[in-house]
From TrEMBL:
Pfam families: Lipase_3 (PF01764)
Parts forming coiled coils: none
Species: Vibrio ostreae
GO biological process: lipid metabolic process
Lineage, opening ranks: Bacteria, Pseudomonadati, Pseudomonadota, Gammaproteobacteria, Vibrionales
Domain Fungal lipase-type: 60-204
Listed name of the protein: Lipase
Amino acid sequence: MKSLKRYQYERYAVLCNLAYPRVFKQTNYGFDPNGQRIIYNRHGKVMMRVLWSKRDEEAIVVIKGSHSVADWLLNLAMWKKHTRHLGLNYPIHAGFHYLMCQESQPGYNKDKLGLSVFERLLSYVIPLIEQGKRITITGHSSGGAIGCVLADMLETRYPLSIKRIVTFGQPAIGGYRFYQRYQLANRTYRVCCDLDIVTFLPPIPLYYWHVGKMLWLHNGKIYENTPTFIRLGRSLVSWLIRPFSYHLMSRYIRNKDFFDER
């Protein structure tokens, strides 16, 4: 697996952080004036941004994490639902399944009514793929989790269309069947910051599995694929004191200097 270079990490971390404000001026970050499409959730709130420029072969999908009480409550729906309608063959976390399959409110004049979030995403990225662009998906928290499944869906429909997946503070989304059948493990980077307790969720051992290469930012160093029990052992005391302080995107921005070009 190729390493995630420092400049790549910085770019994706910054974009993830900037996905949360309501207004995002994409031209300030090298994208075209018409190089942004916004995907809204059922309430008309920004959920994803698709960003691109004509001169770059990479288009980037940025996915926000849970940003409402209702979204956070969906984290508790820890049973599983199948993904056959996505063209995949494994069950995933029911709450995150709902986030992808909820109705997406139209945002542009040509948008059709009645499309789900994943269908809206397809309507924006398929033309970019047909233009020869490869897709990078990056997301924070639940956005990173559903990003893995959406990337797998796109890769199934359009082989080699996915360049990489970079997630920040991501909980697990699937079980062992997902772990076995996920196609993009060698292009997936799961960044965990210090003692972020969300990266250990859902708290059901062996029922949920992570995929890809784990990069752990801890005490000024980067650790690769550190066993869960070691990270968890170092996390418990801090979690009792500051349970979610390490989950904020600002922590990931702070730690961008840990990455070296390799």
